[in-house]
Design a protein that fits this description.
Blueprint: E1 2-11, H1 18-37, E2 40-48, H2 52-60, H3 65-82, E3 89-92, H4 96-111, E4 115-125, E5 130-132, E6 151-160, H5 166-173, E7 179-180, H6 182-193, E8 199-200, E9 202-204, E10 218-220, H7 222-227, H8 229-236, E11 260-264, H9 268-282, E12 290-293, E13 296-298, E14 301-302, H10 313-320, H11 322-332, E15 339-341, H12 343-372, H13 389-406, H14 410-431, H15 433-436, H16 443-464, H17 469-478, H18 496-499
Parallel strand pairs: 1-2, 1-11, 2-3, 7-12, 11-12, 13-15
Antiparallel strand pairs: 4-5, 4-6, 6-8, 9-10, 13-14
Length: 527
């Protein structure tokens, strides 16, 4: 079975920000984990490029909408390549193939009797591309998200008959696993309990979008168009582009339904209510899960251009490296909750966890093994037994990490991996091989102790592979082992789950010259 996961299709009104990088890094960790397990993974990301907001942004920049979209979507592609994101599909909603799929999807919905014409009146936020609740007589009603004036709209639109799906959506969101985390499920249940209302799926007099077939002057509402992009990405059929004419009837052979849509909590309603109803209308299977994560702030403040505290993911990567940022975001913030980026805590966690606890453990143990055992992995002795203290610590760590990664609990997985490294350091300090080697007759004990710590380091490296793949690769290379591979098609002869068994480090294999696997993070001034 194919494991399909998606980021949102990012709206190209502006260049990528840390929030979109956060979502994408989390999806990358999940995709890497599933591939290491042996799953056939399709990891979809891309850009949402239609709507009035894009048209206006392009006009301000003196560009055509298409030129603007080409420029911003290229920045997304480039940034994900710089971060070594392992997506194997990138969809743009301006792709001509997407228009064909949107038309086919709409044809199914319309044939099912779920498209009606009606008048849309209300206050509209162009930035959200969404109508807002009546602001109760305010003279200058504002969008609560963007703090900008709303625009009054009164026009004939096409509506999707969402109200017909009240009972089916109620039953769907009652399933505990469909919306995660649980706090998000409660939000959606409260919304649905108020009664689902039909929603507009077209706009008039908006040239930048996909025309609605059979309805002159109507352009698809950006959200109707964008959500279908997940299907287009699968029917594309190739990583580097394809002339495939596959239609919606082939989705089940192409990786649909998605196992999980990973999104920010602000677009939860679209993915957990509108999208399932649209799929039901089109006669297509529903995604297995929608996971809505929280927002990032910086030093307790919302990030914004006006405040001047926006963190640029490209600059962050250049100054700090991928491992540091991935570790901090995935290890410090419970995925699903809001998180606060604090520079001092970022530096402290990276240095204490990665450079000191993990890096120093491997470095000093490797150096002692090389010095006392002819540059090789020392004889294991009793260290290969399943009842060795570090074997038991490793078993505990693995039993925690695997289910945590399965449920997108990246913090839990990172913490359990770190605990194994802490246990190995504690064992090393207790055994004190540097003291034992000063007395004759202790060589076998020292060899066994060093083997146990090196073997623990091997397992730490394997467990860290989905979270910090570059650090994992350097650790394995320090142990004279092949890295697991970083792309969408990992290559390793022994399955990853089998490599997680204790005692597989080969005795007598040559250890390379020790080098720090993680440099300490030293920042001059604010990021």
């Amino acid at each position: 079975m194919t494991y399909t996961l998606t980021t949102p299709l990012y709206y190209v009104n502006d260049k990528p920000h840390l929030g979109s990088a956060y979502t994408t890094l989390a999806c990358d960790a999940l995709a890497r984990f599933q591939r290491l397990k042996g799953e056939d993974v399709i990891f979809i990301t891309g850009c949402d490029e239609h709507g009035q907001k894009i048209q206006r942004t392009a006009e301000v920049a003196g560009l055509s909408p298409q030129a603007h979209c080409d420029r911003i979507s290229a920045q997304y592609r480039q940034l994900w390549q710089q971060w070594q994101i392992s997506n194997n599909r990138f969809i743009r909603t301006t792709d001509p193939r997407h228009r064909r799929i949107v038309h086919e999807f709409f044809g199914r919905v319309e044939a099912n009797g779920d498209v009606v014409e009606g008048r849309q009146q209300g206050w509209y936020c162009v930035a959200c591309e969404e109508f807002k609740d009546d602001p109760a007589g305010a003279l200058d009603p504002q969008c609560p998200v963007h703090q900008r004036s709303l625009e009054w709209r009164d026009e004939l639109n096409l509506f999707f008959r969402l109200s017909r799906y009240q009972e089916q959506i109620e039953a769907l969101i009652a399933q505990p696993e469909f919306i995660q985390p649980a706090s998000r499920r409660r939000e959606v249940q409260n919304f649905v309990a108020q009664g689902l209302r039909d929603f507009s799926i077209s706009r008039v007099n908006l040239p930048w979008g996909i025309p609605v077939p059979g309805h002159d002057g109507h352009t698809f509402y950006v959200w109707f168009d964008a959500l279908v992009g997940y299907l287009t990405a699968l029917l594309d059929g190739a990583e580097a582009g394809s002339s495939s004419e596959a239609g919606l009837g082939e989705l089940s052979q192409r990786g649909w339904p998605a196992q999980v849509h990973v999104i920010g909590k602000d677009i939860l309603r679209f993915h957990a209510v509108y999208w399932p109803a649209m799929l039901l209308s089109a006669g297509l299977e529903l995604p297995k899960q929608v996971f809505g994560h929280g927002f990032l702030t910086r030093e307790g403040q919302k990030m914004g251009k006006s405040i001047g505290n926006v963190l640029d993911p490209e600059a962050l990567l250049e100054r700090c490296g991928a491992d540091a940022v991935r570790w901090y975001l995935l290890r410090d913030i419970p995925f699903g909750d809001d998180g606060d980026f604090q520079q001092q805590r970022f530096v402290d966690l990276v240095n204490n966890d990665l450079a000191n606890t993990i890096g120093n453990m491997l470095n000093r143990t490797s150096a002692m093994a090389r010095r006392w055992f002819e540059g090789t992995v020392p004889p294991a002795g009793a260290a290969q037994n399943a009842d060795h203290p570090l074997a038991e610590a490793a078993s505990t760590a693995i039993s925690v990490v695997l289910p945590c990664l399965e449920t997108l609990d990246f913090r839990g997985a990172a913490e359990a991996s770190l605990q194994l490294a802490i246990a190995a350091n504690g064992f090393l300090n207790t055994q004190a091989p540097w003291s034992l080697m000063k007395q004759e007759g202790n060589e076998a004990q020292v060899a066994s102790d060093l083997y146990a710590v090196l073997e623990a380091a091997r397992l730490v490296a394997l467990l860290l592979a989905p979270l910090v793949p570059e650090l994992s690769a350097r650790m394995l290379q320090q142990l004279a082992l092949e890295p697991l591979g970083s792309g969408p098609h990992p290559t390793h002869t022994t399955p990853w789950l089998e490599q997680l068994q204790w005692g597989q480090l080969a005795v007598g294999s040559a250890l390379p010259e020790p080098a720090p696997v993680m440099a300490r993070l030293e920042l001059d001034g604010p990021l």
